Structure formats: C-alpha cells, structure tokens
C-alpha cells in the first residue's frame, strides 16, 4: 500500500473549488440531487444549462452508481459540446438519496469533461471505494477542505497491482475514443460476472478485477493504452477470446458516439453580419439561420367567465371533457408520431398523464362545490398548480407548468368550445418569424415550417418541449430573449441565428444579402441530401425494396414524399374516430380518403380498416368495458361485430376508388381464416353494389396465430402486412404500456424475428407481397434484417426514411440474407443487435 503524494491548494483545485461543494443537503429524489449538482457546475461556468438534461438522460442509459454510497452523474458523450471546462461538483447527502436498486448515494460527484480529463477524475474517485472509513468521514464531514483533498489525490490509499499476470494472457490496445468510462466498463463487468471466474485487466502497474466497476475505472485507461487481460481458468484461452470479443464489440458504438460529439461541436455555422452590428442575445434552441418579418403572437390565455351551474351538471361537464381529451390525446400522439417522430410524440403522452393527477381534479371539484362553474373551476385548478410548479427553482417543474397549461387548455375547450385557442389565425402567408412570450408544445407542433421561418420567445429554455419540437421541425429558434423583445413591431424584418442564440432586428441590406447567401448554401446542401432521399432503396446488387410512409392525412403527404417516401404503407383510419366527438359518417370518410388519393398522385396507398380496442378506446362508440382489452374485442373482431362501423367505411373507400386511384384495403388483427372469408364477402358485396373497381384486399399479421398460419392465410388474400409492434407484444406476452416490462418488448428478439421469417416464407407459397409497417421497419439495422427475410415493402415514420434508404443502398441483398440467417440463430435480442457492425 502507498499514499498518493500529489498536493494541491485545498481551497481551489483545477477542477473543484470550494464553491462547488454543498454539505448537509437533503433530497427526496435522485433527479433533484442531480439538478442540484448540475447547478453547481453551472455556477462555476463549467457547463451550459442543457448539460443538466444530458446528465438526467445518462441515468436512463448507463450506470452512474459506483457503490458504497458514491454516485458519479455526468452527461451524454455526444453532449460534450455543452461543457465549457473540466470541472467537478460535490453534493453531500448525509441521510442518502435513493439511487439504484435500493442503494442510497451520500456523496454525489457530478463530472463535466470535454476531453479525456474525466478518466483521471474517475481514477481518483474510484480509489475512494477501497477506503470505506474515508467514505464514511466524507459523508458526514462539515469541512469542505476534506472533500477538496479527494480530487487532489492526497490522503487516498491506492493499490498498486502486481506486475506478474495470470497464466493465460492476451493483450489489446484500447480504441475507445473517450477511454474506459462507466458505460462500456459496466458491459465488461457483466461479462466477467457471467463467466464466474477471475479475469484480471492490467494497465501499466495497475490491475483490476474485471468484475469490479470501481477497479476498472481506477485503471484510468485512455485510448491507445495497452491493456493486458489474464486468467487462471481451465479454459483460459477460450475465455479470453470471448472477453476480447465482448470489449471489441463496443468499439463501434464508442466511436459513433465520439463522432456525434465531434459533429455537434462543428454544427455552429459561424455566420456574422458583415455590418458588425451586435445581436440581441438569447439562448439557442433550434439551429439554423432565417430571415423574415415579425409576427407578434399573443399566447396568453383568455379570461374564463364564472358561469354558475349546478354541481351535478358541472361535474358531468368536467368528467366528459376529461374523457374526450384523453381519447383525443391518443390521436394527437399518433399524429405527431407520424409527422415528427415517436420521441417528440412522447411529449404529448406525458401531457395526457397530467390529467390523471387526483389533486388537480379534486381541486376543481372543491371549487365547483363552492358554487363556481366547471370551466372557471378547472381553469383555476390548473393555474394554481401551474403557478406552484413555475415558482419552484427547478427547470423541469417549470416545463411541467407549460405542459399543464397546454393540456389544461384542451380540457377547457371541451367544456366550452368558445375557449378554443386561435392564436395563429392572424398570421399571414409570407415568410414570418413568430415572436411570442412563450409557445406551448401544441402551438409549436402545429406550425407549418414552410411558412414559419423562425421562432423567438421571451421566456422558455433550450430543453423545453417547445424547443425540442422546434429543433425536430427544423425551425431556427431562440428562447429566453427577455420581455423587451415583445415591444417590437409587427412586420419589421429580423434575422434569427438559432445556432448562436442571436437576433438581429431591422438588419441592414448588406446583412440581409449575406444571410441569404448563407441560407442558400445550407439549402443547397439540404437539397443534395434530398436528392439522395429520392433515390430508390436499391441494394448494391440491384434488388429494390419499396419504401413507404405511415401517415394519416393528405396534408402529411408532401413531407412524406420530401423525405423519400414512395407511397403510404399504412393509413390509420382510427384518427377520424379519435379526433371527433361523434362517429364520422360515410360522406366524411369518403372525403378524407379521396383527398389522400389525390395528394398521392398515383402513388400507392394502403388504408387500414378501423383498428379500435386495446389501448385505443373511443367514448362515442360506447364499447363495453373489458378486463383485458388487448385480448378482447379489437381489430377485425370488432369490425365483424359492429358492421355499423365497417360498412360505411368500406363504402367510403370504394366510392373514393371509383373516381381514380388504386387504394388497397387492409384488415387489422386477423386471427383466423373465417374472419378473412367474412370480411372478403362483405367487401365484395359492397363493391358490386357500388359498381366499384376491384381492390387488393390484405390482412395484418399481428398475432402469433396469423404468423404461424401465414402460408394458409396467403391463399385467401392479395397481400400481407406485418405489424411488428403488436406482433412483438403478443409474441412476448408483454403489454407495451407497462413501464416495468416495456423495455423487454424488443422487436429484434429472435422469437419475433422467427415469426416474421415464418410469415414471409409462408407468403411465398402463393407469391404474395409482404410489407412491414411496425417500428423495426424504420430502424436501419432492422430494415436490413427484414430485407434479408424477403420483405417487399417497408413503411415507417417519414423522418426515418432517409437513413433506412441509405443503409439498404450500402449493402447487397446477399449480405442481408446472411445477416438475417445469423439473427435467426441468435438466442437474445442483445446478440442480434451485436450483429450490427454500424452501431
């Protein structure tokens, strides 16, 4: 044993100052502790505010628990551009805060590092774990200098490893750009624990047991360090081969993360106005440069009149409004998923969850019991909670307040339609820059990027849901510009620099010309990328795969085609029912289907018949409550029991087809031949009655029974489409909405892949066309596997199309067939994912 002799001044180290240490803190939740540690880093000028959100995101994907009461929260690798300098903050929680698996953290070391400096930090921190007594002292001390000494390297005993290795030895040069940090090291630990024998890893004079995360981090291994793996196990050579294979698999992912970080740092285009005028400073929220005329938008809520009504009447109004809003939120989530993406749609799922707050509803009910009207009571309850959230010194709670007001406004408009928001009615047709106090996520998600060229808000933050949506939509945006910006005038010209967080009011002609040239350069690059998106998904050996989009409405077609979509592989018709307070009649449906056909201009369209049940319930259909709706009357089962829903829909589709186009009809949740025959018979009767053209009739393969019988079902239909999301749920017997089980509902599980392969093989018996419209169709690696299985068409969220096309064009069909065969031989989804060399 020896003592480290490096000494620093205790009150101010290179990475830790006394001001960055908090003693005797108390937290009920881990998140609050992380935010407090991040706030200390901000106060030191070490990080941008968004880095705190990155630290929280890291908790979802990696292990920051070191053990013995020590946690080391830090941001995602790709967000290193948010780090201004290497630094550490320390939060001491003597009573502990729950961190992982029931363990409590008493010493929280938050790390900010934009180089491999964090390796040295981790090395010093993890040495603490070999000194439990020192840890206990640090967890209760009232002396900050004792904690400061930790990162100086003084007063910490370390173990210098033996120079002699064990009997079986292999060497490997570490090629992780960021060195051996916690995320990859935890994978090493997992392998070693499964092996169940001693495997040592040596870096120079220091040796670690591969089963110990703390010891691995103490190695301080950086990229290009030569590591020596050794073991005395009987099958030592084979075991080390497996160990090296495991650690090398991670290399591609580590390099990809480093590249993302590098690209993020290069994303600022560096444009400056040639006039040299200083811009109005704000916070960057959506990258890009834009020129336009200001449109001031008043997003403040209108006054809600207190209309007296009986308690019973008010309660019924509120209950009905909440029910309708919850159902409509499902349609909004579906719509945003189609147009923007699933991660952004989760914003609105979170909003819907706010409506289940018992205290919120109880407050509204108490106010109604005091004699107030339903609309006023609900609005007052929302405002009371929103104000409490906003008053907290916590950006997450402030964001929740915005979400609460947003979804609360939806409920309010259901109680009284006169409160429907109309904030954007006055916006003109020219390119405009919206200036507002703040925008709700709903406002932002509904913006048209072709008309709205930029966003400027007086309030808000870079990690708000509004900012996230602006980035996804590709709208240059700045936030937190200050309320002075609201004093500007409608119609004035403005330049918004979303990369650098700057606004140029009334720019000179010289500045406008320079900005326009910069925008033209960016546009030219985007058009170059768009041309690549428009190319077919033709493999390197000439095999072509059809690529389509999952969308719902005609106004989404242009974006889908722009992203490279070659048609619509899934039109979910349930949105018509979810977004309405009443069942849409035949004429309304006909109009929607006709508009979609016209917008596609001859491109393929697959219309899925109404798929209601499971997690999609509609109040105005008055369906009976089921104890297990996912295994109940949904999909085809419902259609055959409710012909009042099926017949108008089929008539509307056939009527639309009579006027041109060739829509295909697809029936959901098919389980048996009898269902197919009944649906075909009814469709043919309607077709003949209308004298409409023959249309291709297909079925969705979403349950194991249908996948197993695909070779039989294919004889009775024109095509099959695999819904991998539901097929995964039913194959794995996992409710995708169960938060404890959802991560295990992996469509790349070999059991699911075998179902897909069996379906594709069965369809070949009758040479039937097979598509996939589930989640893995939009995963570039998943698309390779599906192509290898012989899938003819892949349909996905429009934004996933470019990456999928690029991946398929980069490989041959022969390669993908071999890849698919390997995937079928895998035992776990992790093994399947490990086949992706491009991760």
In short:
With 839 residues, this protein is an alpha/beta fold. It contains 30 helices and 28 strands.
Give a verbal description of the structure:
With about 850 residues, this protein is of the alpha/beta class. It is about 45% helix and about 15% strand. The protein is globular, with a radius of gyration of 30 Å. The N terminus is likely disordered.
Beta-strand content = 15-25%
| Number of distinct beta strands | 28
What does the average pLDDT come to?
A: 81
Structural class: alpha/beta
Return Rg in Å: 30 Å
Largest sheet: number of strands, sense, barrel closure? 8 strands, mixed
**Order of strands in the sheet with the most strands?**
12-19-18-14-15-16-17-13
Put simply, the count of helices is: 30
Give the termini distance in whole angstroms: 42 Å
- Helical proportion? 40-55%
Query: Which ranges are low-confidence, i.e. pLDDT below 50, for 5 or more consecutive residues?
Result: 1-13, 154-162, 264-269
Give the assembly state of these chains.
single chain
- Please state the overall shape, judged from the principal axes of the Cα atoms: globular
Characteristics of this structure?
single chain, 839 residues, alpha/beta, eight-stranded mixed β-sheet, eight-stranded parallel barrel, disordered N terminus
Q: What is the element layout, followed by pairings?
A:
Elements: E1 2-3, E2 21-22, H1 30-43, H2 50-61, E3 65-67, E4 70-71, E5 87-100, E6 103-112, H3 117-127, H4 132-140, H5 144-152, E7 157-158, E8 168-173, H6 182-195, E9 199-203, E10 206-209, H7 213-218, E11 226-231, H8 236-266, E12 280-281, E13 283-286, E14 289-297, H9 311-339, H10 342-354, H11 358-369, H12 374-391, H13 395-415, E15 432-436, H14 441-445, E16 452-457, H15 465-473, E17 477-479, E18 493-497, E19 502-505, H16 509-534, E20 537-538, E21 544-551, H17 557-562, E22 568-572, H18 574-578, H19 586-600, E23 605-608, H20 636-641, H21 643-658, E24 664-667, H22 673-690, E25 697-701, H23 704-708, H24 710-713, E26 719-722, H25 724-732, H26 750-764, E27 769-772, H27 780-789, E28 793-796, H28 801-809, H29 813-825, H30 829-834
Parallel strand pairs: 2-5, 4-6, 14-15, 15-16, 16-17, 21-22, 21-28, 22-23, 23-24, 24-25, 25-26, 26-27, 27-28
Antiparallel strand pairs: 1-7, 3-4, 5-6, 8-11, 9-10, 9-11, 12-19, 13-17, 14-18, 18-19, 20-21
Helix pairs in contact: 1-2, 6-8, 9-10, 9-13, 10-13, 11-12, 12-13, 19-21, 21-22, 25-26, 27-28, 27-29
